[in-house]
Specification:
Largest sheet: none
Radius of gyration: 13 Å
Structural class: mainly alpha
Number of strands: 0
Length: about 80
């Protein structure tokens, strides 16, 4: 996300406070063709379904996985 111009949005999901939304087209830019193709294959979803679903759910999911306003360390992640 940082390398593809969407770092401020991803940072808002990790940090405490309001989560910035992200449009499907912005996710497409941030993820790139290779990751989108892999996710489509893994999920069986169409491109539009995948990007729309991620757009709606990814900010809240990342926010819930980072309640302390930071990424979990290895020990914390293993416990999940």
């Amino acid at each position: 996300f940082q390398q593809n111009g969407q770092g401020d949005k991803a940072d808002s999901w990790v940090a405490r406070g309001e989560n910035k939304s992200i449009a499907p087209s912005e996710l497409e830019q941030a993820l790139g063709e290779e990751r989108i193709g892999w996710l489509m294959k893994e999920t069986g979803m169409s491109r539009d379904e995948l990007l729309q679903g991620l757009s709606q759910n990814l900010p809240q999911l990342v926010d819930q996985l980072t309640p302390e306003g930071r990424l979990p360390n290895d020990d914390e992640a293993r416990r999940w």
